[in-house]
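User:
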Amino acid sequence: MPLDRERPDACPGAVDVHHAADGGLARVRVPGGTLSADRFDVVRRAALDLGDGWIELTSRANLQIRGLAPGAEHELGARLREAGLLPSRTHERMRNIIAAPLDDNQDLVDRVDRALRDVPELAGLPGRFLVTVGAAVSGLGGDIGLVDDALFLAGRDSGLRVDDPVAAVVSAARLFQELRGTAWRLSEVDSGVRRITAALGVPVAGRREPAVTPVAPGPVGDRVVAGVPLGRLDARLLAGTPVRVTPWRSLVLPAGADTTGLFTDPDSPWHGVSACTGRPGCAKSLTDVRADAARWIGTPHTGRVHWSGCARRCGRPAGDVVEFVATGDGYEEIR
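Assistant: Predicted structure:
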């Protein structure tokens, strides 16, 4: 049965902000992660003028601005609307589309985004609704996913093969909205995948395995992947630079971009290390997680490591991760 949620999900938006300990927290959805230089400058200037001067990169390749004074979200919303970054007030929180950041897929992402926004009832989708586009992100647990002509549902290949990927995503989203009750994710809906699959077609016998293929820092053709330490970017950086945000808290930049404050070496001690907000931004955190993680940097480690300020373990990346979870008396290591 669907989980009995007593309240709507509390995912913040660009205007419906979360009131954190350090002020308003706004999340700017960036379907596909791609921002022109002009649009990225709008976000940077907003963080400098209205927030705390930093931009947070999320595990869904979105951007967050923290430290907003009461009412500042209205000015932020006006700036984003003028730049085309807030095309729909009603459908704003459901615009979560992660795309494989090195693929040529932004046009498909944009068409999916427009088509979802064109359906009035889909404004009611929860803020945790997620679409993935591309094999490299197919294992990130999307409610709906596209890998070539394969339609993924709840993070797995449904067996359906589609001629019109945009129409297939919209149809699956509409069915999810009809079936979900109070559930936030398709995986929570009893027989949800089976019911949507049956409504949309006949599955084939073969299945594609979901994958998570993080992009490593370093040059990639005429681009460079630059890691952002702990996913927190100084908003003074990268003026006039187009970016593509990855779900691994890094940026794909044009070759030759100024990467001051970032890292482009896959052997950097910052590579693969992430952290929740911690104190002072989060009232539930037991410690200043980022400061603790920064002091730990340089300790030999392999694989990904995530630091959490409490048992909620916010921001944990998908896949195999070593976690350090604050207990109030140090950290518990979870493997």
